[in-house]
Each structure stands twice: as C-alpha cells, then as structure tokens.
Design brief:
The chain has 17 helices and 28 strands. By secondary structure, the chain is of the alpha/beta class.
Amino acid sequence: MPKDQDLDATASGAATDAVEAWLNAFNAAVQARDADAAAALFCADGHWRDILSFTLHFATASGPDQIADRLRNSFDAVKPGAFHLDPARTGPRHVTRAGTDCLEALVTFETANGTANGVLRLVPADDDDMPAWRCWIMLTALYALKDHAEHIGLRKAGGDAFSREWGGKNWQDLRDEAAAYADRDPAVIVVGGGQAGLGAAARLTHLGVDTLIVDSHARIGDNWRTRYHSLTLHNETQVNHLPYMPFPPTWPTYIPKDMLANWFESYVSAMELNYWTSTTLTEGRYDDDAGCWEVTLKRGDETRTMRPRHLIFATGVSAIPIMPDLPGMDDFAGTVMHSGAYTEGRAWAGKRALVIGTGNSAHDVAQDLHACGADVTMVQRASTHIVSLAEAQRVYMLYNEGPPTRDCDLLAAAMPFPVLKKAYRAATQISKDIDKDLLDGLNAAGFRTNDGIDDCGFQMSYLQRGGGYYFNVGCSDLIAAGEIKVLPYDQIDRFCADGAKLTSGDVVGADVIVMATGYKNQQDTARVFLGDAVADHVGPVWGFGDDGELNNMWKRTPQPGLWFTAGSLAQCRIFSRFLALQIKACEEGMLALTRSDQETGT
C-alpha cells in the first residue's frame, strides 16, 4: 500500500476507534436509562437536534441540562436501542464545520417507532475524563416506520405485478384509473405541483398513502416553464436532485428553467404520481367530527368536492404576489406588472423601464430588459445582500466533499440553529472579502449593500423573509458600470403619468414598471383558501420560531390535517421524508394529528 494510503487508513481507523469509544459510553448510559450520564458526554455548548425519532417533532436541546431532561422524558416511550456506526454510510472522518474541527460520523439505531439515523460531531474533551471525546452536535432523525417501510428495493412491485393478462388492464389503464378518483377520495391532497409538492407526493405514494396533486397550471412543470425567459437555477445541479430520481450526470452545472420543467413532467410519470392540472382549490373547511377536510376543486368546467384527511400546501414561499399601493401608481399611463408575470424584454427595446425592488428577480428582470435594449433604472427600497454566484455555492460545499446525496442530506440537517448561524456568518465574511471589488463598485454607484439578516448572508435572509438578496450573474457589474441606474426609493415623491416624480421635482420617465416586490407567505395562502380562523390558528409559516425551527414547516400544525412544505429543491428533498413519515404515522394510528407537550420533550 502506498505511504499516503497507509496514513489515510491509519487515520480512518483511529477515527472509527474514537467514535466507537464514545458510542460505547453513550449506549451504556442510554441502556441504563441514566440521562445525566448520557448528557455528561456532551460539551457544555453541545446541541442535540431531534427530528421525530425521540420527540415526534422537530426539537433542539442545548447544553447538558436540556439534553438530560429531553432524554429522561423520552426513554420510556421511545425505548431507544444501541447506537452504532452504519456500514452502509460514509465512515468517520475529520472535518471542519462552522469553523470547528471535529470528528464526524453517521450512525443508526432502532426505536419503538422504527429505524432512525443520526450524525455525531465530536470534539476533544477539555479535561482528563474518559472518553477522550465529547459530543458537540448530535442529530437523531427517524428514517423508517416499523412495519411501514417505503415501497422500494425488495419491497417494490414484484416481477409479476404487471404480467401479461390478455384482455385485462395494463399499467397505463391502472394509472389512468388511479388518477381519475372516480369512486374514491385521496387520503392526501397536495396543493401545488412544484418541487415541494412533487417531493411530498412521491414520498407519500411510495409509503402507500393515496395522494393527489392539484395545480392550477395547464401542464406539469409550468410553474417553472412560464417564468421569465432567461431564468436558470442559482445553485448547482448536484444539490438539487428530487427524491428517488437524481438528475442525469450529463446535466449542466446550473439547470435552465425549461429543462427542469420537462424533468418534472417525466418525474410525475416515472414516480406514478396522481396529478390534476388546470385544477384550483376554491375553498376548504375542516370537519372536526369526521376528521377530514371538505374541499372544493375546480377542474376546467367541472367542480368536485373531496374529503381528504390531510391537506398539504406546497404553493411555495413565493405564492401570492405583493403589489404595494404606492402613491400615484394609479396615475401611471404605462404598463405595470409584477415580476412573476414578466417573461422577456424584447417588447421594451428602446423603452424606459423602472424595476421596483433589488432581489434576485428584480436583478434578473433588469438585466434581461437591459440586454433587450431597454433603458433600465432599479428602484432600491432597502439595502440588499449581494454575493457572486460562485461564492453563493460556498454554503453547499458539503455536497462536493464526496459522500452520496443521502449522506449529505443527513449531514446538512445536523446543524442546530445556533451553529447554523455561526456557519452562515463565517461563510458570509469569507465571501464578502472575496467579493470586495464587486461590493465596492456597487456602493460607489449608490447601491446599498448589507451582510444579510444577523450578518448571515443570503441563506438566513431566505429562511427568515424569503428574499432580500441577489446572486450576481452580471447585473451587479452593469450597475457598477452605470449601465443600469439606481434610484433610492426615498427620493420618489409619488408616481405620475410619465413615471416617477422625485422630491426634487424632476421626473424619471418610464414606459413600463415591473414590481419585483415579493410574495406573501403561506399563512396568507391558507387565509385565502381556508379562511381567517384557520390561518390565525396556525400562525406564522416560514421564518424561525423561538425553538430555532422554521414555523409550521414539514410538521404537524395547530390545525389538524393541515401541512406546509416549501423551499429550495434541496430543502424539499430532505424534509419530504419527515413530512411523509408523519402523515403515514397519522394514517396508521401511530401519531396524533396535533402535537402535545410530551411529544416535544418539554
């Protein structure tokens, strides 16, 4: 064996020995139901994030006292078995996470509810106690329910499932029959057929839960296909796979919108998903006595009432466009549109355009208008986080380290909120230093920049407010060069027939105004379709709560049978599993439709 390989093998063996020593001590404490002894194996600033395996919820405990309390409150119900290294996963290795050098390992264990996976991040102990390592971060996450595994691998349809039956129904006949719902209602209706809806429906379908996707667009994938002409994803392909079915290795680094839209169409067929296009949810109410929803669907000229037990809103963080009532806008004689309705700028060649907003969509629209020959001015209402496209990939570097996607997904979930903020803040500072010339050029042009919410860059801005940032693919360079102008909103007195009248009395002329002013969140979507009482009862959707988890996302909400999913393709893939497991557990009587204090470990 070459010397460098010999050293690698030695280091790997030492890492494995260290992890197993910690696991032996932890397992001994857990089997003895000694919560204090188990918690003593964590650092003073240690964190344990649990997703469904111990708490039947998303919950983080920080510090030995909280960790001990949570263990103590869950031992009897969960009955955790021994934790051990998973030979099917990436082996223990030394890594740096959020600026901390640690020993990282993936583990598995059994509970009363099923099989769970976990992540350990160990750091050297700061005293002479044994073992020599303490736990900085532990993730525990339910992977499969006992007796209710996914219909994949050896559990998929057998070789004779579609054997020739002359004169009988073939696969297509059965698919058409399943999707028609002529004589039954689905257990779950998913509202929205983008990546969030597809991921959730795929997981549920292959857990044996009858699921129907409804989407208002005329064709599967139109939620991407009908967006502006130049749209391409802003993160790399290896991060964005859908559940079960990764993109081909021949695909480009950044996926064009139409390529993704066509993939969605193929995905629905390959995953055998029931999907109704041109279908709108018009209203819904929950029947407490029957334990189900009563929803009205308008499909073309037909109206259908269905009674699913679960309703998932997968309409995305960007659902209902916000069109602010700006003074004088009604007097404007030109064209006003929301960025969601913008397609391409050739019609505005030689014309004057005002783009109100400075997020991703605003920049892309402005750059497209400029490329088509329009005279473009961006109206900046608040400072904006700017990062170059290459540097924006820094937060996804985990997916380039070598482990398979399923391992990376588990590692990505193993970032409790306090550590997540630390990691994002560090990455933002590195990117800011590398992008210094770009940012200096923008500031010199009068464009105001920031470091994101809590100085955590674009990720925390997205997770907290769904926007407020831009990945530079060229528009920032045009702004710095003066080819696209910047107008601070506070210099506008009001809008008028010819454009924007400034406080100075001057008028910035415009033929078209594009309102890149964002979208309402999913609580507002629920309000539109389910009423104020339900929306108010559910509370905020998206943004972090006091528990360091996204509000009402991928988990049981205060409203029985109502669920939400949204986010990037990666988020939708990772958390679709946990959403589907909870619904399956509810269907099998293993889990109540609403959570209790005991389930959160409090």
